[in-house]
């Protein structure tokens, strides 16, 4: 009888201890999954990022513009092409000739004491040729400028993609750490319930297994972050060992409303590839005009000052070339220029079709990304939070098993990660839409 009473007292003591531990753990668990905590956390992180001057997208983009080697190379090429414009429209250097009559031997000994002549000559292109040459060089410079702008757009888009990937990885690591702490708490609950005879040992093992899986996920995320940091350092021309701080700046979700037709029209005027081809087509058109001017001769003007025994004489001469073999040269040059112009026009039209398709594709993906973010924020995450709270309360009251609690926790974790991935995708899709249009759209970076 005394043994039975002792066991009843021991069970009663264990139940009291279990209830006390359960209350303590419930108080600990109440905060992480209360409604609205995710938004509050991200707002706090964004405030901290601004105050601590941590990694921000705007700073990265400015650094890329200044430091990226590919951008600097494209800029130097553009500068070099601009330097060709004036020389292309400038006359050839004049020629000076000195002629000594009856030159003695050895040469140059008293050569100027006898009759001599000094001639100055200047070649003049047929009117209009130099202007066309200068305009063609200017169009080549415009092509280099378009290439420079294209490189900037592409590099900045890559920086944005890398930034948003790091943004998601860093958040994933935070969520992973939170879930590892949560699984530790679940393990304690399972241990207490198992010790009091109200739970089963498999529940403890499941919690420990889940913790180990979360640890493995954190190691994989850390390795992926190293790869993204290497990519970012390469884009910014930083030393390989440069550390990249954790991204705490939370990109604000700003729903934008764009008109597809307006975006396509903007792309037609701003997309660097189209501007490059427009400049190329214009250059070939000018080359056709120049080829037709080759049917007309160039002129050489010469002026000669002669010293003769009876005094000084002055001579002037004009000469010009005869494009006598025009059917072998000028005709074919005109055909080449016309063919190049037609090729450039066809390529331009093809590129316009490609740009329209790229803008529409980027626009649809951006719209879908925005709808996904809104769906996660307004429906999916609150539902997952409420499901976990309900299952936790039911598990504490022995109405559901541990597997159900573990599954609801996993669903919330995956939902939060999916929501954050949707945010990162939204930023990436917006960057891709800007690239497709060829200009910045609405955001100040």
Keywords:
single chain; alpha+beta; 445 residues; four-stranded antiparallel sheet; elongated; 11 helices; 2 domains; Outer membrane efflux proteins (OEP)
Characterise this structure.
With 445 residues, the chain is α+β, with helices and mostly antiparallel strands. It has 2 domains: 1-30; 35-89 and 129-295 and 325-437, Outer membrane efflux proteins (OEP). It is 70% helix and 8% strand. The protein has 11 helices and 4 strands; from the N terminus they run αααααββααααββαα. The chain has a 4-stranded antiparallel β-sheet, with no helix packed on it. Strand 3 and strand 4 (311-320) form a beta hairpin. The longest helix is centred in the middle third of the chain and has 67 residues, at 129-195. It is elongated, with a radius of gyration of 39 Å. The termini are far apart. Residues 1-53 have low confidence and may be disordered.
How many distinct folded domains?
A: 2
Within CATH, the superfamily of the largest domain carries the name: Outer membrane efflux proteins (OEP)
Quaternary status: single chain
- The counted number of beta strands is 4
* DSSP summary: helix tally: 11
Tell me the name of the CATH class of the largest domain: Mainly Alpha
Helicity range of the residues?
over 70%
| Strand fraction | 5-15%
**C-alpha Rg, in Å?**
39 Å
Helix-strand string: HHHHHEEHHHHEEHH
Any idea what the shape is?
Answer: elongated
